[in-house]
Amino acid sequence: MAELSGRVVQQSDAREPETEGHGMEPVGTALRGLLFDLDGTLVDTRAANYEAYRAAFEESGHALTPERFEGTWGRDSRDFIPDLLPGIPSSEVDDIRAAKSRIYAGQLHRTIPNEALIAFLRLVAPSHRTALVSTAKSANGEQILQAHGIRELFDVVVWGDQVQRSKPDPEGYLTAMRALGVEPAECLAFEDSDTGRRAAIAAGIAVLEVPSF
User: Fold this and answer.
1) What pLDDT, on the 0 to 100 scale, is given for residue 74?
2) pLDDT of residue 4
């Protein structure tokens, strides 16, 4: 199995610069719950997401460049579409989101699994409580899990359309911990984005920063 690397971040050092390539550091408490982000953490979906959103924007008469999309990473489309298209009515936001969801199925070939992290997940799933906490909509997210054969590795799955407030709000992580029956001090979250790290830390969970793969 390839080496799993990253840096554990807790509330006390949440503002430190990101450092890649360090081994996992102990968090001081026996771990019972392992909580994972999806996009960019377990599976690289940037290309698939961009192409689907680009086409969805185009259907609504708007342009989307890679540079503009880059700044949305880790955020919910309910939040970033109005930021990219100021003044857009909520009904058009819903239209773009629906179009993206429809188009996405044809872009799954562009997704790349994080083989090292998935191998780790397979190793620890039998002995730990596991959850997926993602801003992805359930329809698209389930497609990714099925495409890469990892759906059965999670005891609990919390999608972006199943919470009222998306990351960086901690609602998704708090929901997952309640369902798992674990406390924050017993958990470790795996995240690649600043938005995701902030959500986990706000829930009181230490975070292992997942570097690009």
Assistant:
1) 80
2) 64
Token code pair at residue 194: 């600043």
pLDDT at 3 over 90: no
Question: Is 8-44+111-209 assigned to CATH 3.20.20.70?
Answer: no
> How many CA atoms lie within 13 Å of 114's alpha carbon, on the beta-carbon side?
26
Q: How confident is the model at residue 178 (pLDDT cuts 50, 70, 90)?
A: very high
Please compute, for residue 123, the number of CA atoms within 13 A of its CA located in the half-sphere on the CB side. 9
Confidence of residue 18 (pLDDT cuts 50, 70, 90): very low
| Start-to-end C-alpha separation, the chain | 14
pLDDT at 8: 85
**Contact residues for 28 (Cβ-Cβ < 8 A; gap 6+):** none
- pTM for the structure as a whole: 0.82
Domain spans of the chain, in order of start: 8-44+111-209, 46-109
